[in-house]
Design brief:
The protein is α/β, with parallel strands linked by helices and 225 residues long. The strands form 3 sheets. Strands 2-1-3-4-5 form a 5-stranded parallel sheet, with helices on both faces. Helix 2 runs parallel beside helix 3 and helix 6 crosses helix 8. The longest helix has 15 residues. The radius of gyration is 18 Å and the shape is elongated. The two termini are 29 Å apart.
Length: 225
């Protein structure tokens, strides 16, 4: 299941994302309303956690906009505003549930699980494919043209994130937020090292490379056809 977190408190978002990933969810994070609207329009998610107070575009406006566009993705609203009137406004804006800060992670997870059950969403993805490269999300294995590729845990997470965004440019900041959980200094070369190792493993001995560096922007994985 894919969860989109829209939260400008980076520490809180990292804590939430870490817990959800450990529970088996694929998690993405954005920190402002404008980026959230772009991400919602470009990608599909099984549920969203949206902070009410955000820079750029506030959480209720995000929800109203997506509902007006026919997007029915379940939304859990987070807010420090806990009065009855505030909760009512959130639900009338199109939110499916409302959780007041501070909260216990176990309650947030339980509420998300309830929303996912209520929504009766599609079965979770079990594999990803780009051209002849396949990633099995159940067995945590990879292969290209049927040839097994041995990946370390972080390499697997990196490849999974790139494949979920196939054809789009993935920035270093996006990788920092979603693969490394802000757990290292962004000035280090850890991303470059992992990208280099991953490229060697998935493109070695093949005529058409799948993983590309977009100078000054980030990285992308795409079908060469």
């Amino acid at each position: 299941m894919r969860i989109l977190i829209v939260e400008d408190d980076l520490e809180a978002a990292a804590y939430m994302a870490k817990g959800l990933r450990e529970s088996g969810y694929a998690v993405e994070h954005v920190a402002d309303g404008k980026e959230a609207l772009y991400r919602i329009a470009a990608e599909t998610h099984d549920a969203m956690v949206v902070d009410r107070m955000l820079p750029g575009v506030d959480g209720l406006t995000i929800i109203k906009t997506m509902r007006a566009a026919g997007n029915k993705t379940p939304v859990l609203i987070l807010s420090a505003l806990g009065d009855v009137d505030d909760r009512v406004k959130g639900l009338k804006a199109g939110g499916d549930d409302y959780l007041t800060k501070p909260y216990a992670f176990s309650e947030l997870q339980a509420r998300l699980e309830a929303l996912l059950r209520r929504g009766g969403g599609e079965a979770a993805e079990t594999s990803l494919r780009v051209a002849d490269l396949e990633l099995d999300l159940v067995s945590r294995t990879a292969a290209r043209s049927g040839r097994p590729i041995e990946l370390k845990p972080k390499e697997f997470l990196l490849l999974e994130y790139l494949m979920r965004h196939a054809g789009h440019v993935v920035t270093r900041t996006m990788l920092l937020e979603n693969v490394w959980d802000y757990s290292f200094d962004p000035q280090t070369n850890v991303i470059d090292v992992h990208i280099s190792r991953l490229r060697h493993k998935i493109d070695r001995d093949f005529d058409k490379p799948l993983l590309h560096t977009i100078r000054g922007a980030g990285y992308t994985i795409r079908d060469p056809r």
